[in-house]
Design goal:
- This protein is α+β, with helices and mostly antiparallel strands.
- It is built from seven helices and 15 strands.
- Strands 1, 2, 3, 4, 5, 6, 7, 8, 9 and 10 form a ten-stranded mixed sheet that branches.
- The longest helix is centred in the last third of the chain and has 26 residues.
Length: 313
């Protein structure tokens, strides 16, 4: 969260696997109850509903405005950031993002979706929040995560932003994004998780909890039978190969390009030693949310400067 004058800019990355703000990561599952549930941790109360956040992940949908889930997640993300700062009332400018290939088509609709309540009150973890939504800025995913590195991107560069549901690809040539190069592939980390679960089921006839697989991918310490670990490692290597194959399909050349890999997929590839020559792994999964905030602050500052210049003229 960034403060600009009397406004708090809050960046929110609505991932299919996790909701990210600049300072928090939470599984993006949403469960709505009409009555108060017995367990109240990470509970949002809004419009007479009790909304549990983070118990699982959100299913993939190409349009993020088809239900209320992403709106609930937005209120939750606002509550998370304000609670960290000890604030319960605020003017907020939202900074959010969309996958590259859907950005132009869905940008206006997503902005209207976010602005459905200009003034909104909700309760997060038993504390009431009153928020005035002053505006919304919508940005392309991936680009904002590397915005502060554009000055270093001379020559030909490729960016791969790998989330839970999708991989967004773009080229940057001499510091400028090549719009025609933008692509979105359904090659997020969830694909790797599904392949591992299926392989384990086929070999051992047992289902395995997703949390165990996620810990393996993130290299979180846990004890696993060696034969299970071997299957999981093989599937992960195959998934990483499919990522590289997709990049090659879009003209990636490790000898002539610099590759920047962002998001949860960057963590997986880095953890499992899939390191193409000249690749940079940005393993901060909050990088997009932080980039949205920086871009929105720049936009608000530019708007204020333009207004001052006009008044002086």
């Amino acid at each position: 969260m960034i403060k600009y004058n009397d406004t708090y800019i809050i960046g929110i990355d609505h991932g299919y696997g996790n909701l990210k703000t600049a300072n928090t990561v939470t599984a993006s599952g949403v469960k709505v109850h009409d009555i108060e549930p017995p367990f109240k941790k990470e509970l949002l109360e809004f419009d007479g509903k009790f909304i549990c956040i983070g118990e699982n992940h959100k299913s993939f949908t190409a349009d993020k405005t088809t239900d209320m889930d992403n709106y609930y997640l937005t209120l939750y993300g606002i509550g998370k950031e304000l609670s960290l700062a000890g604030i319960t009332e605020a003017n907020v400018h939202l900074a959010v993002g969309l996958p590259l290939m859907w950005y132009s088509e869905q940008r206006d609709r997503f902005s209207e979706y976010m602005l459905q309540n200009e003034n909104v009150e909700f309760i997060y973890n038993n504390k009431k929040y009153s928020v005035h939504i002053e505006g919304v800025s919508v940005y392309p995913q991936g680009y904002c995560a590397v915005y502060d590195r554009l000055k270093d991107m001379s020559g030909v560069n490729m960016i791969a932003d790998i989330g839970n549901g999708t991989m967004n690809i773009m080229k940057v040539i001499d510091h400028k994004v090549i719009t025609d190069s933008c692509r979105t592939e359904k090659l997020g980390v969830e694909k790797c998780v599904i392949e591992i679960r299926n392989a384990l089921m086929n070999k051992f006839h047992e289902d395995i909890d997703e949390s165990i697989i996620k810990k393996f991918l993130m290299k979180t310490e846990q004890e696993l039978p060696q034969d299970y670990e071997n299957v999981m490692r093989y599937c992960t290597e195959e998934y990483c190969k499919s990522i590289l194959n997709a990049l090659y399909k879009y003209d990636y050349n490790s000898r002539l390009m610099k590759l920047y890999v962002v998001g949860g997929g960057a963590v997986v590839m880095n953890n499992h030693n899939v390191n193409p020559p000249g690749a940079t792994f940005i393993t901060d999964v909050c990088a997009n949310a932080k980039g949205y905030e920086c871009q929105a602050k720049r936009k608000l500052r530019k708007g204020a400067n333009d207004k001052d210049n006009k008044s002086q003229a």
